[in-house]
Amino acid sequence: MALRIYNTLNKRKEEFIPLQPGKVKIYVCGITAYDYCHIGHARSAVVFDVIVKYLRYLTYNVTFVRNFTDIDDKIIKRAQKEHKVPHEIARYFIKAFYEDMEALGVAKGDIEPKATEHIPEMIALVEKLLQKNYAYIANGDVYFSVERFHQYGKLSGRSLDEMLAGARVEVTPQKRHPLDFVLWKKAKPNEPWWESPWGRGRPGWHLECSAMSMKYLGETLDIHGGGQDLIFPHHENEIAQSEAATEKPFAKYWIHHGFVMVNKEKMSKSLGNFFTIREVLAKFHPEALRLFFLSHHYRSPIDFSDVALKETTNALERVYLTLKRAQDRIGKEVEFEEQALKDKPLYHQLTGIETKFKEAMDDDFNTALALAYLFSGIKAINVYLEEKKPEKSLLAWAIAKIKTLGKVLGLYQSSPETFLTQGVALTKEEIQKLIDKRSEARKMKDWATADAIREKLRLAGIILEDTPVGTTWRKKRD
Ligand SMILES: [Zn+2]
């Protein structure tokens, strides 16, 4: 079976045929660096990390680009509030993003462009759109004219009127149509600006993804991805400005993942019901969060709760306990000849599971089903361990097989000892490191992180005391 992907553009699953045989060019919209990432961002990162890992498992030569928005209203607002320059805010939260991603085992993009480093490319794109009469200048701002692009709305499958009815559109008298979007914003006092043919200003948000993806991946991409909340207007606008400029399709497949919900409501900053990645990782193992995301299909909404995370932690612990039992039985490294194992029942069970795993992943990256097969593989190893004399070479092969498939999902790669003892005991150096991190967070007035670290230490049996000369710690005694 060939890989099939649900393509938002055509609203159906389609066989994946890359533009160039053997190569995949994929672009995913990254974060706006003005705050710590929440678990909605974590889901996005994990979903596309697994998609890229699976494409590589299928031996495609993948180029993965994920951007950073490092100039934007929200960044400027936060900078003004904290008496900093926007660049400092963006730099700080990009660093925090990398820390979170490292914890979650999310690989870096092959190219990670930043908006502020691509202003000339963006200006060139706006000039092209002006020349072709798809854009117009009003009061120093440049807008894209949605009425000029007749396919506007093709991604969300809605007409201009329908989109207008469902959108929160700011009233701007200088726009020709309320859905016209800004390509270039005229500089306001005390805001960063760049010189342009239309005066000083800065790019609108949508522009960067078109300019940067085309620079690194060409005018047509294989896959463009993001969350479902980006379909309209962000991706609709990306399509409009890119295809108007190039007269070529912008992306062949559009992949969108579902929301993270809390108590059946979409998690969002405005509702105040959101959790940062670090808050969650202070309480749960990063692999448990990863497993939680992958236990659901990427297009479905998922309901986050501590109870659900506890369940995935337990499931993960069972896997590592089996891996540990098998490893204890094997002892030191054992060589195996695959040929010699081919008549064993466990061998057949696991190669059958590998086929099923691949079929599940080929069906629009159905990680939930792929995981169910992996669990049945673990179960088969468990049963085999109950036999009188389980063979070491067969066990070694079986574990290697589970780890190879687990690697596609970024799971089961820790040593069982490390996984099972993590969080139980901390070294003095580790404790001091956490205390330093907390002090830094307090200096940044980032109380959420500071509290999360205090809580993490409390769970590890460590009590903190803030004194005038710094923070000290002691072991909790009940
Ligand atoms: Zn984008």
TrEMBL record:
* Enzyme Commission no: 6.1.1.16
**Per UniProt, what is one Pfam family of this protein?**
CysS_C
**What does the entry give for GO biological process?**
cysteinyl-tRNA aminoacylation
Which GO cellular component terms, listed alphabetically, does the Swiss-Prot or TrEMBL entry include? cytosol
Motif 'KMSKS' region, chain ranges: 266-270
Task: Give the binding site residues for Zn(2+).
Answer: 29, 209, 234, 238
Q: Which cofactor does it need?
A: Zn(2+)
- What does the UniProt cofactor note say? Binds 1 zinc ion per subunit.
What one GO molecular function would you report for this record? ATP binding
Keyword Flavoprotein present in the record's keywords: the answer is no
Intervals of motif 'HIGH' region: 31-41
Q: Which reaction does it catalyse?
A: tRNA(Cys) + L-cysteine + ATP = L-cysteinyl-tRNA(Cys) + AMP + diphosphate
Protein family: Belongs to the class-I aminoacyl-tRNA synthetase family.
Q: What is this protein called?
A: Cysteine--tRNA ligase
Species whose genome carries this gene: Desulfofervidus auxilii
